[in-house]
Amino acid sequence: MPRIFFFFLLLLLLPQLLFSQLQKKYEKKEYQIQRITDAPKIDGILDDSTWKDISVATDFVMVDPGDGDPSPATHPTEVKLAYDDEAIYVAAAMYDNEPHRIRREFAQRDNLPIADFFIVDFNTYNDGENQTRFILTAAGTLADAKMKGQNEDYSYNVVWEGMVSIDEKGWYAEMKIPYSALRFPEKEEQLWSMQLARKINHRNETYVWNYIDKSVGKLTHYNGLLKGITNIDPPVRLSFYPYVSGEVENYDGDTQTAFNAGMDLKYGINEAFTLDATLIPDFGQTAYDEVELNLGPFEQTFGENRAFFTEGTELFTKGDLFYSRRIGDTPTGFNEAQDAKLENEEIIDNPEKTDLLNALKISGRTEGGLGIGFFNAITETQKARYRNRTTGETRELVTEPFTNYNIFVLDQQFDQKSSISLINTNVTREGHFRDGNVTGFLFDIFNKNSSFNFAGEAKMSNVNLPAQNLTGFASTLEFSRTKGKFRYGVKHDFANETYNINDLGLLFFNNYNNFYWETSYRIFEPSGIFNDYNIQLFGNHQRRYDPDVGVTTNFGASFFGMTTQRFAFGGNLNYSTPFKDFFEPRRENRFIEYPENWYVQGWISSDYRKRFAVDSRLGYNSYLGTDHGQLNFSFSPRFRVNNRFLLVYSFEYMQENNRDSFVELLPQNIVFGNRDRESIENSLQGTYNFSTNDALNLSFRNFWSAANFTQGEFSSLQQNGKLTPYSYEVDEENDPNAHFNIWNLDLSYQWRFAPGSEMILLYRNSIFNLDDQSHLLYTESLENLFQQPGRHNLSLRIVYYLDYNRIRSII
Q1: CA neighbours within 13 Å on the CB side: how many for 712?
Q2: Is the pLDDT of residue 119 over 50?
Q3: Which residues contact residue 203 at a Cβ distance below 8 angstroms, ignoring those fewer than 6 apart?
Q4: Is the peptide bond before 725 cis (omega within 30 degrees of 0)?
Q5: Could you give the CA distance from residue 711 to residue 674 in angstroms, rounded to a whole number?
Q6: Nearest-CA neighbor of 557 among 568, 571, 569, 578?
Q7: Residue 306, pLDDT above cutoff 70
Q8: CA angle centred on 782, ends 780 and 786, rounded to 5°
Q9: What is the pLDDT of residues 125-143, one digit of tens each?
């Protein structure tokens, strides 16, 4: 009888016990931070008396690959936090019963190698969206990023301190994060949210302080609370980054020198808003652009390498209306300058870049969660110069007038996960030139339990031309399930034929009315041999808006998998119905119809923890009923010589055969030809880290491509998108064949000699060749390339960080 009684009692209590454990698992943790009077020495050794009576954040739980499993007794984590009027201080002890297995690979700032690391995230507005991430690896590498949802932006850089140490019990991290590195509301008592995390690389495990339910919402929705910061009186947030730079360049026997000096500055208008400005900017040491042979109808685009346009720009990139490379780009009248040359004239100067005079941005967020951003940049007038061969007289033609670029953003966060935004971009050019204005309204709404998301955009553009104004409209509506293993979503994209954002944004084409859908199944805990996998089915139907014409319909499937041994692999398969290409003909409202096609691709990526690892990808695209096909292959091995030295080689190959491609526009005809194309790219990245503050870096890239048109197989494009044979004579003036080869090599030494300060010594070597010698093989092309004059550049740049408060204390 007693046994039956206890059995039924257990049945009654078990659900309550399980519910209690589940409730505890999802409950937000709280940490009560303490004010201190004596700041600890930031040396990575946690023996300061400051830390003795500080409360501990512990009981970390697994976020990857598992779901909420407690830290093993062999690997506990203990974190302490304190504050004063200058900064937040963090001390973390990462215990490990096998300290010899702690991964300590060296790297430079913001480059996370295969190493153990500690993370602290602060969301100073507790809005579930915007937070700042600080990372310290077991080797002492610092990294910082702005986070929004799942996305990390490591272009964000602030000045803070971090040091580490290691002993027989594990490793330790100590941080000082000044208030100058954070933005927070101006009020007596702060309520921040916080997440702490630890990566144990040799176990392939990540643990967090506050539990994260990966099956619902975003990572930033799962912070714990940081309480107790009161009555802080932060110092003036004003810092200067003066620089000097010099360079020597030799090209084709001509040597030139240059010297530059300027300054960036940051000023905290108040605790929430910051002004960033660059005065007389110098971008001479930015990474080279990966230029390719561009035979398509769209401009080639490049990533942004200028720090000012990547740091703290998360507000300005909303709605995808800001393509920062427009600022300082090739003058809008660069190509027209050649056509404007008179009969007896020669061009003696036609600038390829527009000079940036200065730029500034102001951004921040109010206590009520309203983000406000203002961006302004000014570029100088550029002129082409001509000389009359007979009289010697010169004249000038403005190719880019004095131009003002502006962005204004309002972004209201609410419910700790949703937002609505208003953004306006404006470009005003002096004189009778083109101006542009774009306004966008955006929303991103989650329901109460984060299981569904509804997002959308409505954008209107207005282009002022000397003869007319063009107003356009575009919109996006998207609905998706964001909870559980099984997810789905639908989306609609629309733009009319006059929508144009290209004065400050990037738009390849308009006049579309497209529909998308996708569904997926994923796991959040290890299953069999997999730590993670995701299966996705997707499709879309694309149409022109005016006239209403179907363009194509696509169906596809993809797979991603990561095994317990950290071997990743996957691929995708896609089928497309016949495709009406309205852009390849280069004439408005004309199209060429390509037949239905299928595409298959597979890839692998081995375990980066091993000294040798490899990434590889193979894809093939076939157009049914024709000989048109394209093969893509890439192979990238990486070898970690030791904890300081890493080499990564990449090889990419592309071969396309029998493609019907644009050749020339004639008054009565659009000429197409049958084209074969082949490309090879070799690149090498090497880094030797003397420490986490100085390194020698090698970056090399060689890209070759040749395009050959079959002689006698030219066609004329008909109104129905079909091709008919056409007699087209090729000579030296109109040869469509193309041969392209470029070589870039950068060798640099970078030394961060003080917080926020650095010196970079850079040597560059580049060679470039573009002609019609498409019959040359790759090896023959290299021989031909080295006959071209090379450009050699040696430059030195020194930036020194000056904090106003330290200057004032010295004075």
Answers
A1: 0
A2: yes
A3: 75
A4: no
A5: 8
A6: 571
A7: yes
A8: 120
A9: 988 888 899 999 999 999 9
Mean of pLDDT values over 166-180: 96
Pseudo-torsion of CA 234, 235, 238, 242, nearest 10°?
A: -120
Secondary structure letter of residue 567 according to DSSP? -
Query: Exposed, middle or buried: residue 372 (CB in 10 Å: 0-12, 13-18, 19+)?
Result: middle
Report yes or no: 609 and 114 within 8 Å, Cβ to Cβ: yes
Query: For residue range 746-764, what is the model confidence (pLDDT) as tens digits?
Result: 999 999 999 889 999 999 9
Give 26's pLDDT tier (boundaries 50, 70, 90).
low
Q: Check residues 100 and 24 and name the one with the higher pLDDT.
A: 100
For residues 716 and 724, the answer to whether their CB atoms sit within 8 Å is yes
Per the structure block, which two tokens stand in for 578? 């016949």
Cα–Cα distance measured from residue 748 to residue 761, given in angstroms and rounded to the nearest whole number: 6
Spacing of C-alpha 270 from chain mean position: 29
For residue 290, the cross-strand partners are none
Using alpha carbons, list the distances in angstroms from residue 66 to 202, 486, 525, 526, 527: 16, 18, 5, 6, 10
How distant, in Å, are the alpha carbons of 522, 533, 554 from that of 560? 9, 5, 20
Inform me whether the pLDDT recorded for 467 exceeds 90: no
Whole-number Cα distances in Å, 610 to 104, 403, 660, 730: 13, 52, 45, 55
Q: Contact 798/756 with Cβ under 8 angstroms?
A: no
Phi then psi for residue 24, to 5 deg, are -65, -40
Do residues 281 and 313 lie in contact, with contact meaning Cβ atoms separated by under 8 Å?
Answer: no
What's at 702, amino acid-wise? N
**What's the chain's Rg over C-alpha atoms?**
30
Q: Which CATH class is domain 26-227?
A: mainly beta
Span 404-420, mean pLDDT? Answer: 93
Give the separation between CA 120 and CA 209, rounded to whole angstroms.
10
φ, ψ at 450 (rounded to 5°): 60, 25
In this structure, are residues 561 and 570 in contact, taking their beta carbons and an 8 Å threshold? yes
Task: Return phi, psi of residue 809, to 5°.
Answer: -70, -30
Cα distance from N-terminal residue to C-terminal residue, the chain? 87
CA atoms of 258 and 606, how far apart (whole Å): 46
Please name the residues in contact with 321: beta carbons below 8 A apart, sequence gap of 6 or more.
407, 423, 425, 438, 440, 459, 501, 504, 505
Give pLDDT, residue 10. 47
Label residue 534 by pLDDT band (50, 70, 90).
very high
Q: Enumerate the domain spans of the chain.
A: 26-227
Whole-angstrom Cα distance, residue 43 to residue 412? 40
Helix (H) or strand (E) holding 809: helix 804-810
- Measured at the alpha carbon of residue 103, what is the angle toward residues 97 and 108, in degrees to the nearest 5? 145
- Mean pLDDT over the full length of the chain: 92
What is the DSSP secondary structure assignment for residue 108, as one 8-state letter? Answer: -
Distances (CA, A) of 557 to 147, 309, 529, 552: 30, 36, 22, 17
Three-class SS state of 534: strand
Contact criterion met (CB below 8 Å) for 410 and 393: no
For 129, the token pair is 């969206």
Cis peptide before 547 (omega within 30 of 0): yes
Asked whether residue 312 carries a pLDDT value surpassing 70, the answer given is: yes
Q: What is the pTM of this model?
A: 0.89
Per-residue pLDDT, averaged over 689-710, amounts to 95
> Which of 552, 553, 514 shows the shortest CA–CA distance to 721?
552
Task: Tell me, rounded to whole angstroms, the distance of Cα 781 from its chain centroid.
Answer: 33
**Tokens (6 digits) for 575:** 């089928």
